[in-house]
Amino acid sequence: xxxxxxxxxxxxxxxxxxxxxxxxxxxxxxxxxxxxxxxxxxxxxxxxxxxxxxxxxxxxxxxxxxxxxxxxxxxxxxxxxxxxxxxxxxxxxxxxxxxxxxxxxxxxxxxxxxxxxxxxxxxxxxxxxxxxxxxxxxxxxxxxxxxxxxxxxxxxxxxxxxxxxxxxxxxxxxxxxxxxxxxxxxxxxxxxxxxxxxxxxxxxxxxxxxxxxxxxxxxxxxxxxxxxxxxxxxxxxxxxxxxxxxxxxxxxxxxxxxxxxxxxxxxxxxxxxxxxxxxxxxxxxxxxxxxxxxxxxxxxxxxxxxxxxxxxxxxxxxxxxxxxxxxxxxxxxxxxxxxxxxxxxxxxxxxxxxxxxxxxxxxxxxxxxxxxxxxxxxxxxxxxxxxxxxxxxxxxxxxxxxxxxxxxxxxxxxxxxxxxxxxxxxxxxxxxxxxxxxxxxxxxxxxxxxxxxxxxxxxxxxxxxxxxxxxxxxxxxxxxxxxxxxxxxxx
Amino acid sequence: xxxxxxxxxxxxxxxxxxxxxxxxxxxxxxxxxxxxxxxxxxxxxxxxxxxxxxxxxxxxxxxxxxxxxxxxxxxxxxxxxxxxxxxxxxxxxxxxxxxxxxxxxxxxxxxxxxxxxxxxxxxxxxxxxxxxxxxxxxxxxxxxxxxxxxxxxxxxxxxxxxxxxxxxxxxxxxxxxxxxxxxxxxxxxxxxxxxxxxxxxxxxxxxxxxxxxxxxxxxxxxxxxxxxxxxxxxxxxxxxxxxxxxxxxxxxxxxxxxxxxxxxxxxxxxxxxxxxxxxxxxxxxxxxxxxxxxxxxxxxxxxxxxxxxxxxxxxxxxxxxxxxxxxxxxxxxxxxxxxxxxxxxxxxxxxxxxxxxxxxxxxxxxxxxxxxxxxxxxxxxxxxxxxxxxxxxxxxxxxxxxxxxxxxxxxxxxxxxxxxxxxxxxxxxxxxxxxxxxxxxxxxxxxxxxxxxxxxxxxxxxxxxxxxxxxxxxxxxxxxxxxxxxxxxxx
Lengths: 491, 491
Fold this sequence. Notes:
2 copies of one chain form a homodimer. Chain A has 491 residues and is α+β, with helices and mostly antiparallel strands. Helix content of chain A is 35%, strand content 29%. Chain A contains 14 helices and 26 strands. At the A-B interface, strand 2, helix 2, strand 3, strand 4 and helix 3 of A face strand 2, helix 2, strand 3, strand 4 and helix 3 of B.
């Protein structure tokens, strides 16, 4: 397979696909809309998952596991919820195959039809709240702070690797609380956890906000989100945290006796991020030569390539490199020594550039003589000859520097791409020519939101938290407005 | 809910179920045959998973993720494989729900029928080998050493929490090799990894062996297994490792060019363990008071219960306990301080006995004065008053001692329950009165194996590795035999 990548300018969408496939993050599978996450992509996801999991546990959450299947009648219990998910459900109707008596091979056994169809979970509020009913009787049983790492299925018609697939991996937190205030506090806390993770680990700045009623999660009273910006000026929702009110408690009759011994419905939140974040990571940072991965979550942070002729040189280099590797590993730095002799150094350089390894060391016998090594950083492509003495400490600082540099670059880009628009013409012009977020007044109605979407494909991404209150006129209708909201075209 | 546990003698099966449910490991769910793994049970599984995952990575394996869905035609490509799994498949036939125009609520949309039905993976050989076809061209692409952590579904008719559920969690390793020998070596290596894990972490001794052709995995040339023994004398298969020959390579046309540039089919292995291991753990070690968990994988290794009256005493105890906790955590010991004032110490003692926490400390103000603490170990129920000075080191040694003690107890039990039988009468008597493994001669035919199973419900659990060769006569038919095999009734 050619390792050539389509440039962003030529075809942004193809560039993204090339990065994912040729960078060996994922492949299309034989199953419609489903992907295979390859070992390199999965190692990246594992690092993201482990960092998030630690943050969840540090904020008092525990993991559990609920069934993959949701009885059809459960999904139907919360009206808005079923409305939101009914059109994209994978449905299990039978539980057995058999040999076709007419010789047509293996067929579904018509006698093994389920009495009630089972839906593959598109999200687990219903099966979980049906379970919480058994777990909650008293205020002493609250709060429940539970998270699940799982696969879910939403039958999307147009799919893209990581960004939108029929099956994807995610985590879904589902918490139960005695009071409205506590549930809202939890919703906001988890939004904060997501923002911290995406900014600190993925080096991707986000805007925190709330969704308009039209963009809320099906069944939520309020949806909080973090929005990020891709290099083509399109927005991408990186995570959501929902305040569910008492909607699911009412649908599944989950009550608790409070301290005054009165029965009340339980308050709920749910929050999730998915493998979609891998897509965001790829799109936000990479260039026309390949992936650029932030050190904190890169599967390998440093790769070392030996340059030598013959076994004698190799042995000398090995000895030095093994010492460096020992030091790096002791510092917790993930390092790979690529001494595969089936490939030339130049090929390896291109390979690790493609795969976005943050730092590459190249070391030959002449370097050994001078006691130096060539250090190349992936993000800026800067190369430098560095003394071998103290190299581990040097690399530790360099990795932190790359992490910060990637964040700052993305932050500058985001800041430059939040632009106010004060007239409809300006609004359309900005969307077409500059992209990014456009801060504009909106009259607060679903009709206007929908009309703008139809005219421009731009949606309201969020109303930023702590938004400045400012009198103005709706960009489309001219009706009065009290604050600007952020519009963008989005993934 | 009553915390009373049915005794083993009264009803072994109910005892097991009580332990799982009242020990809060898992619950039955509203979905037939599916369980909810509760936070305490999931924490146990996480510890098992993390230990295994490290062992897989240390032996050169990487993780990846393949689709949940398998096209029906894929499952049919390997004849023995489809034969083995067809009768227990959950089948997805539709991808959308809609509102019933006749007012019957939400129904499956008959227009959203899939062209080809999708099977929820019961195991992933087919979808994975269909993918390997794209990844393997040359001997340079081999070996592939890939593992997946995933949920799978097998539509079992009679289910039991952890031991047999329609959906379960597991890992499945799928490796591809250039030679038969290398694949067999891998199969045996992974059997060794499983045996080490189950013995060292779960404190459960196992017998390594191979299955008879009748008990092989559907599609394997050879199935290796580890067998363990439960307290009721029944065997439980704790893990399997399969040498798949070239069966799946042929079914999916996966060839590679060898060093001589000739095309050959690729050699395969697969190996898996599942949440079933949690069931084995519970059944093997627990008693009539509750779970007994081995320290290496227990969610909490030490629980500390304060005994006090009033805030002043509490503050004094807190101070001392926090110091101990700091020390224990620094040593990597998982400790919980239960200072919940809604429950009395006696209730807490019973609770942690039920949950199988290996060590319980009880500390009151009088203990503080004397600078001692009461240490109770769960496995032997031994209590001892121990000086607070050096308590962390004392506990570290105690935990190792408990781990070893649990293994030795189970090993003695296993050794006492491998009994030779030399006549049919003896065979039946041993099965009914003593249980465990019975070492007996077998004529090597599937007919005899089946006949013995029908007469006694005992199956051949395995032919032990490095089995002693010994002339004898089949226990049922009297035909000649060259070695004893191990029979048992099994889960």
